Amino acid sequence: MARVRIDNYAYPDAPRLGVKGWLRWMWRQVTSMRVALVLLLVLAIAAIPGSVLPQDPQDPAAVRAFISENPFWGPFLDALGMFDVYGSAWFTAIYVLLFLSLIGCIVPRIGVYWRRLREPVPPMPRLLTRFSPAVAEVQSDVADASPRAVIESAGASLGSWRGYRTRVESEEGRASLVAEHEHVREAGNLLFHVALIWILVAVGASTLLTFRGQAIIVVGDSFANAVVSYDSFESGAWFDEGSLEPFTLTLDEFSADFSLAGLAEDFAATVTVTEPGQEPVAQVARVNEPIIVNGAKVYLQGNGYAPVLTVRDAAGAVVFSGAVPFLPQDSAYTSTGVVKVPDVTVGEQLGLEAVLYPSAVTDGETVLSIHPDDSNPLIVFTAYQGDLGLDEGIPQNVYVLDQTLLSPLRGDDGQQAVMSVAIGETVDLPEGAGSVTFEGLSRFAAFDLRKDPSLPYVLVGAVLALLGLSASLFAPRRRLYLLAENSGAPGAATVVTAGVSAPEHDADATEARDRLLAAATTPED
Amino acid sequence: MTAAELSVMTLWAATTLYAIAMIAGAIHVSALAEVAPEERGSVRTRARGIARATTLVGLVMHAVGLVARGIEAGHTPWSNMYEYTITGSFVAVLVYMIFTRKRDGSWLGPLVTGLATIALGLGLAVLYGQSTGLRPALQSYWLVIHVSIAIISTGVFAVGFLIVVLQLLQKRRELDPERYTGRVWRMVAVAPDQKTLSSYAYRLHAVGFVLWTFTVMSGALWAEDAWGRFWGWDPKEVWSFVIWVIYAAYLHARATTGLNKAAPWIAIAGFVALIMNFTVVNYVFQGLHTYAGNS
After folding, report:
1. How many domains, in total, are found in chain A?
2. CB distance A505–B203 less than 8 Å?
3. For B111-155, how does the pLDDT look when each residue is reduced to its tens digit (9 = 90+)?
4. What angle do helix axes B235-255 and B194-226 make, rounded to 10 degrees?
5. B267: domain range?
6. Per the confidence metrics, is the pTM higher than 0.80?
């Protein structure tokens, strides 16, 4: 009987689609493969701008610079979310739609798969001639040559873990086995897609639950794990600051090995970790080897020199003494640093802006560092006096000197004085403002601390996705047939016929058929 | 002779041998083109023998060159563009050798050896750099796992790409065989029909896709150790993701009736993205993978 198709628009009085109808139509569109494909390609294209333009989460300074350099395009692109592509509404919309499409496609397929698994394996075809049959005989003098026993021993050889579903039928003088492997691909396919959803959820949870902080520690110093001790700290919306484990981390030693050409060969930070109520433990953090403290990972992310400086004021009193981390600016560890001296006994507050050359060479005019090792440390600096601007209570960047209320110290020629001091030396500041002593050279290490409770879940999702993907692409699509017949005449051999149906390119299909046939005709030990 | 000299010498030898293999292979294919299809299986030209021998010897030379480079560097030679190129082209030829073990691949030989000649030649002439030590960020067993799989999947995708291009040409020829009868088209006709090519391409891309998935995942695991996060939208990560998504689209298009026609073009887009990732991303974009360039 032919089905009658109703065309809504052919009959003016027929009901139109209506809200429900439209929703159903939209759902069908979203879950269609065509739309999924378009969404995939759109996702690929949408991800590209984020690799071309600087991105806010990765490099906010570059984004600011880009916007100020491009007065038209900068704000325009900013309004489009082009500087935070992966957090933008449109990027989110694409992948949310894609996952909706995925869910809409997968859920019904899981139902279908489930029902099909419970259906019996299709019966034995009447003839095996179409399924590249192979024939063997089991002689009647073998212990148990009945068709049933032959089929059972063959069935046992398939093993349960290979995912064969079987159908065994036996009657007098005839037994058959159908083993199908076709559902494994679909299972793998479903597993892969479910694992992708799992990964998305786990990554989403990760951004809510994680924290990341950076701490700069000079050799010999300690760091206590609390939000206030970090140089920078960021955390997800659901992160509880009270959950930070109050351990301390002491940087005992830092070693940096460089080749003669100045290439980094190895960085190692020896630290002592003390968890509350426990014995201190010594550990080594390397670039690829974070240490783990109570579930939080501590990464060695950077390092540099920390010159030990002593500053005396006009009265000769020591007003500053300590190691100051200098941030490396190039591969030869030319480093810049700032010293702020607010508490002077006489006169105005002092500030220093300095450059450290670990292996300084000079032609009289310019200074260069030729190697990252500290073979000839030299500090070149300028000094300022005035108001450091620390009293307003606004947090300041410790690596930048706010010069608005400072005036440079000038030499006899009236120019800003540029001074240099080698290790162990003292240099007097102009205008009788005091002196600076370069006592020694220490090192610092920059550590990233991070705890992400969703990591194991992401990993499990990734492993499942890979397994599912491999099964869905490589699992053979095979159906094996085995038929054992015995005429019942005394001493008659049991004739066993094996067949296989598989796609043409499945080169191992006949091998699987022969294995099954061999298992059927070889008596068990 | 130092290991470095040996490496460069054997790699140049491999380049030359591949070039000869390409020419001889093309001569053989053009000979096949003049024979009726059912007789092609029995045609044994001298060019065929030369192509097979030079490809095999080239592959051996290529392998020696890679091992010597590894000895020179003191580590698995996968830490910059030069090393990536010489290893990736090796994988492409190796995939071809495996492909032809069970079937006749005369039609594919000139394409693969041609690609290998170009890649190796460019690598040696343009990208070559003396081996330097490994930076701390690269001192990890992940270098062996992550990069080797990335290179292997690149080699597999490269062969898949060649077949997909051939598939498009074959399709065009099959639609109107009367019109496309020039010498080159007759050579195209030597290759299997469009449907078979499509199936070869699909299976190669399936292998490449699984390997690429593993590349991205192992990269995330390494990034978790080295950079303190498993995913951070670094340009290299972005492009690896883009490549993954494009090839995923290819597999979906290939598996869906009605979208089949788009599949080869999507595969080509995927390979273009792969090459972009290897060239433009290394040279132009700032990212954490900067050591992949030859600075």
Report:
1. 4
2. yes
3. 999 999 999 999 888 888 766 666 666 767 787 888 889 999 999
4. 150
5. 150-181+188-295
6. yes
